[in-house]
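Limitations
The structure tokens in this dataset are predictions for the assembled complex, not deposited experimental models. Users should treat interface geometry with appropriate caution, especially where small molecules or nucleic acid strands are included. An illustrative entry is reproduced here so readers can see what is and is not provided.
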Amino acid sequence: MRKIFGLLVLFVALFVLYFLQSTFTLGGKAFPPLGNFLNPYSGVWQNTEGHYLDLELKSEQVSEDIRIIFDERMVPHIFAQNLKDALFAQGYVEAYHRLFQMDMSTRFPDGKLSEVLGENLLAYDKKQRRLGLSYAADNAVKSWNKYPKLLENIDAYTAGVNHYIAGLKPAEYPMEYKLLDFEPQEWTNRHCALLLKAMSQSLASYEEDIEMSNALKFFGKEDFETIYPLYNPKDIPVISGPYAPLKTPTVNNVVLQELSVYLPSIVRPRSPDGIGSNNWAISGNKSQTGLPILANDPHLALTLPSTWYEIAITTPDFSAHGVTLLGMPGIMIGFNEHIAWGETNAGHDVMDYYNIHWTDENKTSYILDNVPIEATLKIEKYAVKYVGEIYDTVRYTTWGPIVDDNTNLALRWVVHDSANGPEFMTFISGMTCKTYDEYLTATGSFEAPAQNFVYADKHNEIGLRINGKLPLKAYGQGVKVTDGTMRGNGWQGFIPRDENPQERNPKRGYVSSANQWSTSEAYPHFYNGNFEAYRGRIVHQILSQNDTFSAEDMKAMQLSTYSLQAEEALAVMLPLLDSANLKKARILSAWNYDYDPLSKAAPLFDKWFSALENLIWDEVFAQNNVKLPAPDSWVTLQLMERNAEHKFYDIQATPKKETLSDLVNTSFLSVINEPLTSLGETKKAYIPHLLRLSAFSSDTFFVGGTKHALNAMKQSSGPSWRMIVALGDIPEAYGIYPGGQSGNPASAFYKNNIEKWANGHYHRIPLVIKPEDISKPIFNITFRHEK
Amino acid sequence: MKNSLVLLLLFVTTILSSLLLTWWVIAPLALALTYYNNVSTSAGFVIPFVAVFLAWLLSIYLIDTGAVSILLGELFSIAAFATPLLAAMIGGLLAGLFGWAGALLAPTSNGKNK
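Predicted assembly:
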């Protein structure tokens, strides 16, 4: 009897052991295998950081010794004897600090999140594969292989990542692997391509083709052009012109199809609202040092670990410092002994939908130039965690993939195209340049997402080029869905790179961009896109002053929370209030238009303007059966400034014919009686972890800013890296990003910079050329060549 | 005295073997030690439980600087100080069950277990 009981206890014990090695769900919450996760010898406790020991490693893949010194901010300084060894070390240190982030950042475009996160992510993965990002990465790698000698640089980076992965014991896996119970995957060059495609998805996935087509049908041409104009007359574009005569003729032979039926809206990727960036460079004439100063602050969705990783690379040929996008070798935004560089998003629409005419119900072939063409069927396989393999078929047409089988729309996206040059070398070669000519050549193969590449050097040159593969379009092409039955309706090639808008050493003494229109309407090639109407004008307001500027002035600009939109809107709105309401609006009339975290006027203005927009555009927002695009706020403001009376002011649901004054007062009354809270309290800014785990995310913090201010901080998106470089024999540089170098939530370097960043502090960044110049190293890694 | 020796032995072997082998090596260790040392059925559970609980707790206190406890506390919505205890309880419970099974399955020659 006792033995039977013993066997029963043994059975229970074995079951408990099995349970402790299995994931489970309790109360809708997923739990890791508790034994694996919580044991002190290989579990999460091993992710404790605190004692950093010097490492000496060997590899056949490095040709000479490499030294990596982590400074007091945990920034790695790589000292290598050649570029390939430096990139090997870059791969190693990025994996060392951010392996999980790199892994997840590639699973996201590759449609492989469900492999590690389970069935809940399958629908999301399918959408990603149907967008063709995985297909795009395959195309990129194929075209990269045409440059075997240059590709050795990427190979070196990949080898560095894999050297780190190969040396990992399960106890050393990043915490999230233990939590989700999976293992790191081998890194390949394709992962680097996927990261570039993920960047394009964030920054070059603007289009509203379906909604715009519906809007044209709903409103008719005249109203459509009033509500959705292509250019903002108040804008000061990135490149103001005059534009040099172009060799490529403009396109004018595309007949745009107008729809006879409304198109159903489909879920497509959208860049988070408020994403955008600023950059500018002033020449020596406008600088207090007599030499150029460059500033750049890319605004992105903020995450933990941070998007950026700070790194310094020194070889006998160059010393560079800046930030890198994890998984892409080279330095994306930074400086070296001679030059400084940075980017903002150009915002052009390079993503167009074509309406396909299928020949059969099964959608196996479609009409193109009056001839049936077979669609290519691509079988997508998903290895879903706990479920197994699931298959999906994606149809590819001459335009691109059918993103949603419920529609007949094929996607033409520049991101799918094979690269025409060694695009992967952009940020590798870019960090080694000494002159603008070198920099233009080094970055000339960059294709997507198109960026405003800003440049300055110690030889007193400044420049800016809208850099990327921009389609040649007929006027209006790509704003709406295009007829996909004729090849001639496609893009007519691409703007040759030397015809991309650009300027070098302009007389006004500065170049700048803040996601506004690239050019004025005078630029001969048509483009459309998603452009910001105010920040670019603020930069011009400041830099066009007859004054000289210091690095401190540049900091003040980046931190400015002044809103030109608020100033211009209130100049129209406040005078229209009746006297009783005007008394209640004192807080707004006394406001300085700063989105300070303590300001109560700022959130009040936002609510009021939003309520007013809803009343003015009731024709747009009240449509339940058809989705129409929201008009831009500058269009609302332009309408109010130009028209005291307009048919759009009439609220359709009321018998009365309203005036603008009626709408202004009604909208004001709808918000003024709500309790006033400060911007900081209203916004509740925070930075989420990649997995949205609150334990690994930041606490909420008070911070100012708005999407139309230079400090374009929203709740969880904003300036993801602030950098200022005053060029000179010894560059004076400052930078900070909201996070920390380590991707380990248990590290003291995980989110150590958030508070400083939120308070407007910068780190002084010395350009270190010799290892001895690092005053307080934390630890070293040395790589020895293994024979 | 014997029980104390078994406890000490299991405490030490838990730490040493877990550094080299998988964490659940505590299960066969507890089973074997109670099986061959002829401990009572109640001691069969308590000794491995206490030995592994203490070994894990000591290991965690030696490893963790506090950061992981805090993270786990937030992750599992419990007090941070309780997370090492929770982890050690899991190890102790597993070892205890295997130890209990070992004691029950062991030959009963000395009559102590009757």
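Some entries come with short summary sentences. For this one: Helices of chain B lie at 2-20, 26-37, 41-63, 67-76, 82-105.
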